[in-house]
């Protein structure tokens, strides 16, 4: 059963700062996830994902997966966050977190933690999560829980979307029927509307090295060990869905392949993988050895270059200053707020999606905004309007934003000025 959570404002989580954040509809109530509150949104971050490099036509993302074995204690999560400062990352899929509750929280460092942990309905789940860097959280379209073994998130690109699925496959303690159910659910979780798909996680399957006479374009020649039956099933899944196992396409020293170590260190296997439907956008897939929180797994990270800018940058780049007469600014602003308020009142019992918010704001603005021919006088008046808008933005930033109208106005001012 899928449970979807779309982008919106999130609340203060157990580690959040009560002075900032966005709200999202929680998937289920939990003592670890407080009721959502309306709080102001800060100006979008520009980060390593490429959104601040306006002359470039690509977005670079660092996508990772890590079986933590446990993040049950707050100290475990803080230890992980501290070690993540040592290298670049944008989104990390986590499994076996053993945390309780479902929902989205903002952590002290500004990053997001979306987790699908233990609940009364799913007491046996091992726990999955996405850790989203503060620099790209403004580009996350939604989160979705597909089952106790897989969750996904979407990143909005220009005219396209990138779907990332984090999984935790059944171990050898489960029979083949459970494996078939898992892969069927995984295939159903792939959003065919998304141009780019990346599947990451602990597959509990040994792919092994590619045989010399093996002809399979979906796996490369790099790897360690021998393939087992679960590894064969993984490759069958990749072949059927035209997915590449990126770990196998980048030559590394032998010590840089294994992702799991037996309890006494007797043997090591490669069972954590990153799959994709478009290998051309992957620049590297590697083991990250700078993370050690007591897990018997090692983190796997891919560097991905998508030939699309992130959606947020496109909207800002194409946005033009409002062309209205300066004397009418006060009147138009007041009318604009009233129109927004009336539209929001009509759907006060619903949390609107980003698309609906954009539609409401755009329609209200188009009803009031005229587009006269630009002259030197118009340019001077536009400068004054921009100054007034900047002044209004500063006023909103200084005061406590409590209403939805103020929050929307502040967001629109950030986009316009």
From TrEMBL:
<keyword id="KW-0175">Coiled coil</keyword>
<feature type="compositionally biased region" description="Polar residues">
    <location>
        <begin position="8"/>
        <end position="18"/>
    </location>
</feature>
<dbReference type="InterPro" id="IPR005135">
    <property type="entry name" value="Endo/exonuclease/phosphatase"/>
</dbReference>
<keyword id="KW-0378">Hydrolase</keyword>
<feature type="coiled-coil region">
    <location>
        <begin position="63"/>
        <end position="90"/>
    </location>
</feature>
<protein>
    <submittedName>
        <fullName>Endonuclease-reverse transcriptase</fullName>
    </submittedName>
</protein>
<dbReference type="InterPro" id="IPR036691">
    <property type="entry name" value="Endo/exonu/phosph_ase_sf"/>
</dbReference>
<feature type="region of interest" description="Disordered">
    <location>
        <begin position="1"/>
        <end position="54"/>
    </location>
</feature>
<keyword id="KW-0540">Nuclease</keyword>
<keyword id="KW-0255">Endonuclease</keyword>
<dbReference type="GO" id="GO:0004519">
    <property type="term" value="F:endonuclease activity"/>
</dbReference>
<feature type="domain" description="Endonuclease/exonuclease/phosphatase">
    <location>
        <begin position="163"/>
        <end position="300"/>
    </location>
</feature>
<feature type="coiled-coil region">
    <location>
        <begin position="379"/>
        <end position="406"/>
    </location>
</feature>
<dbReference type="InterPro" id="IPR027124">
    <property type="entry name" value="Swc5/CFDP1/2"/>
</dbReference>
<dbReference type="Pfam" id="PF14529">
    <property type="entry name" value="Exo_endo_phos_2"/>
</dbReference>
